[in-house]
Amino acid sequence: MSPHEGGEAAETTTAVASATAPSTGGGSDDGGGPGGPRPEPLRFFGTTWVAHDGGYGVRRVCVAAGSLAATVAGCFLLRFAYQGLEIANASPFVGVLVIVMFSVCGAIAFRKTWEGFSERPVDAAREEALRSLKGIGFIGSLAAYFLRSLTEAPGEGLRRTEYESAVAQYERRRTARTRNPAARKGARARRK
Question: pTM higher than 0.85, yes or no?
Fold first, then answer.
């Protein structure tokens, strides 16, 4: 299972709704304000990606190192499996077939994982059908996770875009309402 599939796939169905729906709770320190939209947490990062606080840099380094170590371990695992085929005196065709299968599955898993960091999947049924293929090509998913964690938290760009648009939409709705006591309080506080 790739790091992207586990927790983030389950979050995919509710992510847009949670990013755009105003929260009903009290004040929050994550930028949404009282009653405003709240950022969607990312695996290993929580909501530290919003302001890059709470050990965000250390978490990124740990995620990058962990995904690189898992990628290398996965490569060794596949090498041992291939050596097992050689010990079992499997035909060369089987060896080539295994190499091609893992290469193609790894490339597809890399591409789908990378795309998942920047856009939500359109067809959930198709993503579910590709789950086993991504499982076989787990090295590609791990490599994508490693490369993305070098520049940002994996999935941060997508979540940030959704969160900022939800906050902007919330602010437009809030200021457009007439007789809004919260807007008047904010205007009085700004005038002082």
Answer: no
| Cα 84 from Cα 44, distance rounded (Å) | 35
For residues 173 and 182, what is the distance between their CA atoms, to the nearest angstrom?
Answer: 12
Amino acid present at 20:
T
- In whole angstroms, what is the distance from residue 47 CA to residue 43 CA? 9
Who's near 46: CB < 8 A, 6+ residues apart?
A: 54
Look at residue 106 in the predicted model and tell me its pLDDT. Answer: 95
Q: What is the SS3 assignment for 46?
A: strand
Which pLDDT score is estimated for 121?
Answer: 82
Nearest to residue 154, comparing CAs of 166, 164, 143, 138? 143
Using one digit for the tens of pLDDT, what is the confidence trace for 12-55?
333 333 443 334 333 334 444 567 888 988 988 988 898 888 88
Residue 66, Cα to own-chain centre: how many angstroms? 16
Q: Is the dihedral of CA 23, 51, 165, 34 positive or negative?
A: positive
β partners of residue 22: 37
Calpha distance 190→192 (Å, rounded): 6
User: What burial letters (b/e) apply to 12-22, b meaning 16+ CB within 10 Å?
Assistant: eeebeebbeeb
Q: Pick out the chain residues at pLDDT < 50.
A: 1-32
